[in-house]
Amino acid sequence: MGNNSHLSITEMRKRKFAYQIGKDILPAGNGAVADSYFETYSGNRSYEDIFQTAFNAKYLLHLIKAVWGAVPPYKLLDCGSANGLTIGQFDKLGVEAWGIENSAYIHSKTPHAWRKRNRLGDVRKMPFKNGSFDFIYETCLPYLPEENIDQAIKELFRVCRAGIVFQGTTTDMTEEVIEDYELFAGLQTFWTISEWSDAFVRNGFQLAAFNSALLDEIWRIEQEADPDDWDWYPDKETMRYCFFSKPQIGPSP
Predict the structure, then answer these.
(1) pTM, to two decimals
(2) Please, which pLDDT band fits residue 48 given cuts at 50, 70 and 90?
(3) Which strand ranges, in their side-by-side order, compose the sheet holding 133-138?
């Protein structure tokens, strides 16, 4: 057996979970995953079957309140919104949520009530005006090719007013969660969370979680969200790179 001590965590994880890589990727390479991705979203369970247990709108709102001090009502964009079920969950909590999804297959399953707000489109060129949303909840970027990431983040920056919660798959998430949820299926960009942070910062965003007390609170929310499930992140320091603010330009003195 060869010595893997010189390998990066990304290369080690890609070797360990090689059986997941390439699964559910369409030849077009535009970030849209195959229909099968949503039919076997977690094991043999469909996206609809697992949604209620996999998505927690209150958890996300608690994170937004902790980081930015914001409470509803506000306007939020879900990037990678699938069939728009998240929109209904946010709406119950007083958030005007919209979505953008590039898979025509899963988007076609959007309930009638949310069809106006759940858009079929491309995160690299979104049909929204500048500064349309206070916050963005982002999970779709790692499904794009690396060469498209900067373009997509520039679009996120354009439509965002306050901040972004990045919860896309990273190569340094815990091995248990990568294996259990097959998180590498459909991915085209394999980066650590700090590499994603670098991409957000070079495209105009700033780190939003900058002090230890805030990190303690974020980690508490993360741990309490589902205490019986796997940890998604290895430690609280890693979660520093999940939150980014758009710099606010004030009036000239």
Answers:
(1) 0.94
(2) confident
(3) 118-120, 96-101, 75-79, 133-138, 160-166, 243-245, 206-207
